[in-house]
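Build the 3D complex.
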Amino acid sequence: MKKNWIVLFAFSLLLCGCEAPNTDGLYGTVRIDGSSTVFPITMAVAEEFQKAHPNVNVPVGVSGTGGGFKKFSIGECDINDASRPIKEKEIAKCIELGIEFLEIPVAYDGLSVVTHPDNDFVDQISIEELKKIWHPDSAANSWSQVREGWPDTEIELFGPGSDSGTFDYFTKVVNGKEQLCRSDYMQSEDDNVLVKGVSGDRDSLAFFGYVYYKENEAKLKIVPVSYNGEPAVVPDESSINDGTYKPLSRPIFIYLSSKSAVRPEVQEFVKFYLENAETLVSEVGYVPLPKNEYDKQLLKFEAFVEQSKNNSSSVE
Amino acid sequence: MTSSEHSSAPEFNSRLERRRAFSTIFKNSCAILSWLCIGVLGFLLVHIFSSGWEWISFDFIKNAPSRMPHKAGLFSALMGTIWIIVTTAAIAIPVGVSSALYLEEYAKKNRLNSFIEINISNLAGVPSIVYGILGLTLFVRFMKLGPSVLSGALTLSLLILPVIIIASREAIKAVPNSIRLSAFALGATQFQTVFHHVLPAAMPGIMTGVILALSRAIGETAPILMVGAVAYVSRAPHGIMDGFTALPIQIYNWAREAKVEFEGLAAGGIIVLLLVLFMMNSVAILIRNKTQKAQS
Amino acid sequence: MTEVVAATFRQKTKKSKLIEEGVRCGIFLCALASVLTTFGIILVLAKEAIPFFREVSLVDFLFGTKWNALILPRSFGVLPLLMGTMLIVIGAGLIALPVGLASAIYLSEFASQRVRKTVKPVLEILAGIPTVVYGYFALTGITPILKSFNDEIPVFNALSASIVVAVMILPMVASLCDDALKAVPRSLRDGGYALGSTKTEVSLKIVVPAALSGIVASFVLAFSRAIGETMAVTLAAGGTPKMTLNPLESIQTMTAYIVQVATGDIEHGSISYHSLYAVGGLLFLITLAANLLSYKILKKYREEYE
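Done.
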């Protein structure tokens, strides 16, 4: 039996040498990693791209935005999916290895505030009221403490994990500082799990990405959000797209490395991404940027490619 | 002997009725508990089959993953899992069984060997993600193996090595000493005794340990995720230095998707994973039954 | 003639001595692999945990009662995570160990060959089901059942996670205990029967004590697996670190926290990121202490026959 294992092992070592046959046209690998929030979009683009260019391999990982940036800064991946902008320490790491990057917003995610469908008194909520609930200093426990006339029952809070970009953005906008939040809400990494939580409790209140609300509309009640005294806005494709659902819509990004931008397969991929983002982003359930935004990003991208090419040739 | 001495002797009360009754109650309780375990499995499987069965098709196995539920398939994940498991087995089984043999047959009771023993039982409890961190630092970055099948297999081997060693040791310990003594009496060297007599005798127990260990490896997500198994790739690995994805990662990904069809796909993925496990287990069980029969 | 035979014999003996030494060295190196792994883990954990302990004192870490590693205001007291882990592990152990042992006794002592041949493979398949599946089972299967008893139970709670972890380690305990029990020589059982014992008495008073080392080994393995469990607990128990002994509340374990930070969007290199190595190091030390203890106990009580 052991002999068989040795043979199998040796055989697989032999296979290491084999590679896919090179035909004319684009070939190579475009390595992508990063956030699980951006992943569905990037995966859709990779899928369509590989149909058009079957000799390019586009593997996409989900190590998280932070893990992705780490890999990005040491050249282990070409593109990082990011649900939050790059932070200073991460920029410093890139500079260490001479990597310049381009930040490309690819879609909007509208953070939705939801509650149980049987909840009949929460018809809309303001950012200030959200702050009363979520800020650690006030940390309102019952509905009556938030608005007069609301019942005296205890609010059951759910939300994404405190390590996620979603959490960072929500706390920054509602509480004024990133990661400043009460710590006794029910956290979960998995938004499907949050949906289950909210739909199982009549006094629930939660926030998570728009796409999870959309897929579970029947089990949830959306709460329109008002900002600065303006009338409350319901998040949907158009209000997130044109910016009227504020301040809870946020951009999500991909970051491109200058060292990778000199390769033709990477260039083609990013170009393909921006050209097809509008359709693919909606298909996946996120909200696309306005059309001219994508065109603007394409121009920025092309300039970045030129710059990277010049930099690398001057180094040589 | 007078009758008075007789009557001072204590009555022999065998309480046979009571003991028999207790025996039956105990036996039945154990039986009930065992069937409860089976019942739980049955419930779980029924739950999964009912959600996932409609998604199983030849396309499902042949296709690459896709954002469109009806086009999505498992091929790259299935191939990745097979590559990983075969490589892991090839590494972990020889090293694990050898370690167990060393500790049981060759090692003297000195401090170094006690230290090794304690080490192994400790490593069995380290969370799998810590192995992932170790694998990333040691195999991917330091040894420059990159996010490859080999890195993943090495990491998983480290993870399951303690399980194999501990279970194998128990199996080897249980081999009656008379076998060893009779081999020595016939002039066999230690090598011959251990590898031609003790090892085959311990094979059933070792196979149990190997089955448990490989089953654990096949389902682990966290360590291979850290080592760099990707969440999406459309092709199978070409060699052990290639990148890869695996079934549990694909399942976990589908389970997290917002579209409700993907929940059924995740269940379908689980069914395929269970089938692979089943086939693996059957092979090992066949080996175990054959060797166990040969002994008794 | 005898000279030739004697010479051949001497040559063969020399060759086998070489093989002996070679094999001995080879498998010793294999055994060392585990020691090297431990050193590797300690190195990796220590290197990244040191920056954490430069900013947070050891006392604050070990005795603090609030864990707000990712939320402001920050506080790094590890006791809530520790309590969460212990709650789940002890809960799971209380369910799985007796049931597993009882099933093993049934399989090895009472069940017919036919039953054993079908049930044992089934147990092994149960052992191999990926942990993610159990997590979802917890949410979709167990929590609704618990809720039907008492509506106040939150969706995420420690009891669901304990039950799920128990189901997960049960087949391992049953399978390994069964092997240990089966390995007890028949002569011991026959001796008991010959003296008029019932089957249960033979099982409980003769076979189980004889197989004790194997049984305890399986318990230790199962406990280790329970402590190190991540996915199922993350999904079922939730992610709220809390100091509580109430199994009906949602808590977070050390492993769930490690996974959360390692795969989340946290900036690598920040103090929150380094806290994961501190927690990992603590976990490692705890399992080390538990193992040392069980090792000492085992040495005292192991029975040897033949």
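The CA atoms of residues 31 and 59 of chain A lie 6 Å apart.
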